Amino acid sequence: MAYVDHAFSITDEDLDFEASYVVHNRPPIKEIALAISLLIFGTLGLFFTALGAVLFIPGFYYTRIAYYAYKGYKGFSFSNIPPV
Asked: Which residues form a coiled coil (predicted)?
């Protein structure tokens, strides 16, 4: 039996999944507040190297995504930020 890759096939089943997906493009306030607080505490915690890095790296990453989504950069949206 031959192997068939269905990753790029378009069928009626694929349309059912897309119909139930709704995009909300409003800013996720809690997630952005968490990212900013991680960035601030990570910056302050850089004196304590390990804890500062654990807080700073995800804080910077998600704050950058939120900023680019707010500015409307292509490829960035608020849906890229995971819910809290």
From this structure: none
